[in-house]
Amino acid sequence: QKEVEQDPGPLSVPEGAIVSLNCTYSNSAFQYFMWYRQYSRKGPELLMYTYSSGNKEDGRFTAQVDKSSKYISLFIRDSQPSDSATYLCAMSQVSSYDKVIFGPGTSLSVIP
Amino acid sequence: ETGVTQTPRHLVMGMTNKKSLKCEQHLGHNAMYWYKQSAKKPLELMFVYSLEERVENNSVPSRFSPECPNSSHLFLHLHTLQPEDSALYLCASSQDLIGRFGELFFGEGSRLTVL
Q1: Average pLDDT rounded to a whole number, residues B2-23
Q2: A18 at interface of B, judged by CB pairs closer than 8 A
Q3: Chain B within 8 Å of A32 (Cβ-Cβ)?
Q4: CB contact, 8 Å: B41 with chain A?
Q5: A43 reaches B (C-beta below 8 A)
């Protein structure tokens, strides 16, 4: 079983839709959860970061962690064409960057 | 403009060539990383440097050879590569290797094609 699983998509939605991106994981010891956004021909950039369980909101983006289900989500409200990118989830047991495990990414297209 | 600069952005090489990828970070960070990104696969951590010391080598073939001459520069020397090594190679940096969790800063990557 892979440590972190993510539907690769592609996911295509109309502008203004609510988008739900998800990852499942197998290691119950993960405590740090991140979402990175990667535009075409660019490197990933950190979008959201949460520690342990719960929700975190930043503008149109909400990150949700359900440790009991080993499931994390990123919600995008009022999606825009500029949200078109690949979204990578990432997680770690400890606060050490060399232990971060990434998912394969979900490709999202927001159609005007 | 990103604080992590990678050159070249694109590289095509034959299996017998020797080439190098360069990374420079302008953020004053102490840790630098090389990642490999292949289509539909998770980012694979290849090498980690903290304060110019190699911390980790994740069972990477010896045809990849890293070099960190100072805390701002990181190189990946390539020789006798295989076609399956074709991928996007990403350099990243962080303030420190361990500590209050912040973020990894990535460069835009070097797209490598091995013929």
Answers
A1: 93
A2: no
A3: yes
A4: yes
A5: yes
Chain B from 78 to 97: CB within 8 A of any A CB: 90, 92, 94, 97
Q: How far lies A52's CA from each of A27, A34, A65, A90, B104, in Å?
A: 13, 11, 7, 13, 19
Which of A73, A80, A69 lies closest to A13, judged by CA? A80
- Using one digit for the tens of pLDDT, what is the confidence trace for A60-69? 999 999 999 9
Count of A-B CB contacts under 8 Å:
59
Q: Assess contact for B90 and B45: CB atoms under 8 A.
A: no
Alpha-carbon span B54 to A3, nearest angstrom:
25
Q: Does the beta carbon of A1 lie under 8 angstroms from any beta carbon of chain B? A: no
Q: Tokens for B61?
A: 């073939």
Tens digits of per-residue pLDDT, A20-61? 999 999 999 999 999 999 999 999 999 998 888 889 999 999
Output the DSSP codes for B40-73.
Answer: TS--EEEEEEETTEEEEE-S--TTEEEEEEETTE
Residue contact A104–B42, C-beta within 8 A: yes
Q: How far apart are CA A89 and CA A75, in angstroms?
A: 12
